[in-house]
Amino acid sequence: MYDLIELTTTRHNPHIDPFMSMWEWQIPLYLFLGGIVAGMMIISGYFIFSHRYKETDCACFSTPLISLILISLGMFFLFLDLSHKLYVWRLYTTFKISSPMSWGAWILLLVYPALILNLLIKPPAILQERIKNLANISLKITSHPFLVKVIGIANMLLGLMLGAYTGILLSVMGSRPLWNSSLLWFLFLVSGLSTAAAFVHLFAKNKYESELLAKADNGLLTLELFVIFMFLIGLLSSAKPHKDAAELLLTGPFAPSFWVLVVLMGILIPLFIQLLAVNHKIKHTPVAPIFVIIGGIILRFIIVEAGQYSHWFNAHLK
Amino acid sequence: MPRFGMVIDTKKCVGCQDCVLACKTENNIPEGYNRDWIVTEVHGKFPDLHMEIRTERCNHCTNTPCVSVCPTGASHIHEWGGIVLVDKDLCIGCKACVEACPYDARYIHPDGYADKCTFCIHRVEKGLQPACVEVCPTHCIYFGDLDDPNSEVSQLLKSRKWHVLLPETGNEPNIFYLI
């Protein structure tokens, strides 16, 4: 071990030196929106699959339209991030198995028809007023229970793929030690599900569903804590660059925002509030779901920024 | 089929940046961007300090994470010589390759596409040396076919001690530094 290692470079490429900051706000916001839509597709798919669409006030009637809006917004952010925008169509001239971004492009293309079919099961009134034929189409779909089940399954599967891919997109980067964990996809999937459960809980009218979502969110938040713990343990027990990457969150420059905004405000406080609510000690409050959603956004920002900050070279410099 | 690589003699490199200027001129690199650069590394314990000056660029790795993550195939390995290149007409500017490179050797060109060292393939195809090799006043950069046992680069790697950058990443870089 040397007492001194000093590297001086003449390179000063924008957004690369001294630390990588290529991906800015657009990517974490897209990852968050992708995650929450994935979660809503799984929740909505499950409600449809379990025949809840026969209820008059199922949350699964409003989630597809919201999901379509949010995923389009996410894709718009993704588009904003591209620096060679006019060539975006090149994504759809090939499929590359080694590139999760290529998977994502095609998954997103499949997400739209699945969401539209989900929407057609019972289109929101606002759409029915504008498009007269929608009621007929809806009737045709619901008269085939098997088809409805298939739509539910398709939404759950595509939600799973979308949620997992947002994490895999980062975890394949061996160059960024913080991202290079095989648990990142699971962390993003669980976080996506948890934020989606919180979000749907905010507007769910059906009492059974509202209660179910709050309980599910408690389970998901607990699971998320466990996954974060395992994610950090995995990094800490790995090579030095990975250890240094974990330190960025544990005690380094990202520690205050990670502990306060993600762990405490995004997980522990809402978990405590919702545990009281599901045990009927206090009334359901929008505070907990809002905290969960904000925590989910900040988690993506921290992982993207700290991941870019983590580096093999930094390990040499320490 | 050749497999091109570079051997850089760190005992001869003085960090004059002629290679950097030559690259900028030859490849019309915009102001504020670099395809190659000079790194000075000092390590040891005073007074036993060791200094290495070296010219760095894309390592044209054998295992190429930049090529794997590219969603459109814009980042590719050229069929002749194994040189890692970017087709700017396929690049969408998603920056995944920039993130995937542990050497941070890529950047986004102001015109929007990912850019990096090409080993001056337009010169190599004509039988010329890359611009940086051509201008080096101390002749510390050698370019050639690593698969040809009689090439100058192969002979140097046989006769001298060398290291590569970040071998622990497993990318098998094709730029070697003589020590």
Can you walk me through this structure?
- The complex is a heterodimer of chains A (318) and B (179).
- Chain A has 318 residues and is an all-alpha fold.
- Chain A has helices spanning 26-49, 63-81, 100-121, 125-130, 134-142, 145-171, 184-203, 207-236, 240-250, 255-278, 287-309, 312-317; one strand at 4-9.
- Chain B is an alpha+beta fold and 179 residues long.
- The two termini of chain B are 29 Å apart.
- The model of chain B has no long low-confidence stretch (mean pLDDT 95).
- Classes of the chains: A mainly alpha (318), B alpha+beta (179).
- Chains A and B meet through β1 and α3 of A and β2, α2, α3 and β6 of B.
- β1 (4-9) of chain A pairs antiparallel with β2 of chain B, so a sheet runs across the interface.
Quick synopsis:
Chain A has 318 residues and is mainly alpha-helical. Chain A contains twelve helices and one strand.
Main sheet: strand order of chain B = 8-1-10-9
Q: Roughly how many Å is the radius of gyration of chain A?
A: 21 Å
What value does the average pLDDT of chain A take? 93
Q: Residue share in helices of chain B?
A: 10-25%
Order of helices and strands of chain A: EHHHHHHHHHHHH
Structure class of chain A: mainly alpha
User: What gap, in angstroms, lies between the N and C termini of chain A?
Assistant: 11 Å
Given as residue ranges, the uncertain stretches of chain A (5+ residues, pLDDT < 50) are none
Spatial shape of chain B:
globular
Count of DSSP strands of chain A: 1
The assigned CATH architecture of chain B is 2-Layer Sandwich
Largest sheet report of chain B: 4 strands, mixed
Q: Tell me, briefly, the overall form of chain A.
A: globular
Instruction: Report the sheet-strand fraction of chain B.
Output: 25-35%
> Which range best describes the helical content of chain A: under 10%, 10-25%, 25-40%, 40-55%, 55-70% or over 70%?
55-70%
CATH class of chain B: Alpha Beta
Poorly predicted runs of 5 or more residues of chain B: none
